[in-house]
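Ticket #4471: structure export looks truncated?
Reporter: QA, pipeline team
Priority: medium

Steps to reproduce: submit the single chain below to the structure queue and open the exported record.
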Amino acid sequence: MLDYRHLAASHHAAALYSYALLLALGLSYAAYISPLNVNDFLMHLFMFETQSVSRTFQHAFIDPPAYPEWRPLQLLTAQIIYKFLAQGHEHLVFKGMLVGSLFLTVGLFVRLLEVRSWIEVLAAAIALLVLLGHHSFAGAVEGIYPYGVEIVLLACELAVLNILLRREPSLASQTLAVAISIFAILLNEKGGLVGVTYIVGSALRLPGGTRRSAAVLFAVYLAILFFRFLWVSPPSSLMGRSAATGYLGIAFDTLAPVLNLLISDPRIGEFTTIPQAVAGRPWAVIYLTSSFFLSALIVVWAWFTWQHAEESRRDELKVAAILPFLLMGSAMFGPFSRKDYVPIMALAGYAVVSFYALKWLFAETLRARRLAAYWLLLALAGSLALSWSIRAAGLFYYLRHQAFNYQFEWAFRVDRLGKTHEFDPAMTEPIIARLRPQALSRPLNHPHAVFPRQIMRLMLGRECPEVCRKSIDGEDD
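Actual output as written to the record:
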């Protein structure tokens, strides 16, 4: 006998994956046509030309220099890609990796969201917009430093969450989770939160984790930290990396990534969204209200779900319990960087939990018996869907804005860059001469010339308060 419930569920999943595919295709195209960013990318290429892969490996693991940062796999993997894969096709290879990572990230995220009704499909669609539309996501796709490390870390986080939510753990899945977690922390310090996710999820007894594998990973992480602070450089060296001054400054920068994720302010080390929302800037009002109401909804959902303690919702609450650990981890990195993408690892958990909260809101809306309550919940659901749709659409504006900036730098500033650094112009100039025609082969207009003026007024400043300082009329943003 045909199982119609299974057939309906497959239709719901197919609709969600089709929607996600369209978003990923559009975003990948916008990211791929953007030229490689000039400053950081070229500096890394120049560095790779002046030392061998074996020397980079030695600096990473055997005789590391006493720098505040220790990211042994970041430069090593980038140099291997440049030397052995790119071979004159840097845009194709590095941007191709970024596109592949984008599809992987979107696919892993959608795989986490099990949908059984059209209401849940709608909740999942909005949750995907939360992932893509939050300004911390932009840092994962705007440039190559030296390649898309942030989006790779995000994919690692989502992969581990998928493993944790498996119904049956296996030796292969546990080994894969531990391997991904070790790779992530060696790629970038923020990658340590991938292992934190697996350890906490296993301690909470999520279906795909085991406490034995979590204990193994915890021991490996301790060994890495001991090596980092006893062999590479002491903890005191991190103070030189701190962007904050004084106890109040450190406290502010520590709390900033948490608030950045939950209410979209402060950004780049200062409050920008709240003052501009008070001044009536549309993008700031959308940012502030969408984040505030969604974060409040998550708290309300968690409280009501915990009170009722439904068996079917216990795993969802356990995933929500991981989010505070990700926020605390993001706070630890706040004093060392004021970039918008600092809380990007917590964004994965935030977006997943937003799906749980949104589908609960939609279910409560359908069950509302009082007309006033029904319309109130419907208005809240509609405003969240609209505001996060606008925020996700703004990501395309931002990528076009950055693409125009990068192309301008390739056209007018790159020669000076090759002559004012410590590298030999005899080496840098041929690289610039080879890469510049690729960057300028597809002329890109400023987004103000592409998008309607009304859209520009709505989107202006949504991603980059430190860059997009001018409005369409020339006034300070």
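Status: closed, not a bug. The export was complete when the record was re-opened. Leaving a note from the reviewer for reference: DSSP finds 20 helices and no strands in the chain.
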